[in-house]
Amino acid sequence: MRVLVLDGPNLNLLGTREPGRYGTRTLAEIRSDLERLGADLGVDLTFVQSSAEGDLVDAVQAASGSVDGVLANPAAYTHTSIALRDAFLATGLPFVEVHLSNVHGREPFRRRSLLADVAVGVVAGFGPDSYLLGLRGLVAHLEASGR
Ligand code: DQA
After folding, report:
1. Structural domain of residue 122, as residue ranges?
2. Is 0.85 topped by the overall pTM?
3. Ligand 1 centroid from CA 125, angstroms
């Protein structure tokens, strides 16, 4: 099974970005944790991070046909990007939306996701563990759907 891990704007700064909110683990460390879990689950992971909306759209399009699903933290684009929503709908790629922080306990504009209703599921508020929980959920979903 193959999964793309997609990270949006400013997540390259994890480790130093608002550590009180997002913790001190870097994106590289989160990726290592995912690699370890992926090895246990028999999943090959590829990783893309970009702060550019179009690059994320391109990555979803490029992944179509070569991965079984996407684990996505679209960061701020979660709340704004019709283009990313359309990319997931156009490709039909199953995806799980993850957030380090509990977006429902923050500013009102973060409570709206333009992706959540078309995602397999959403995990938010568990820090880096959101990614690990999200990967487990995505893999279980893909297995149940025969992939
Ligand atoms: C985030 C939550 C978003 O609202 C925010 O714009 C981010 C990070 C999270 O992981 O908690 O950049 O996706």
Report:
1. 2-144
2. yes
3. 10
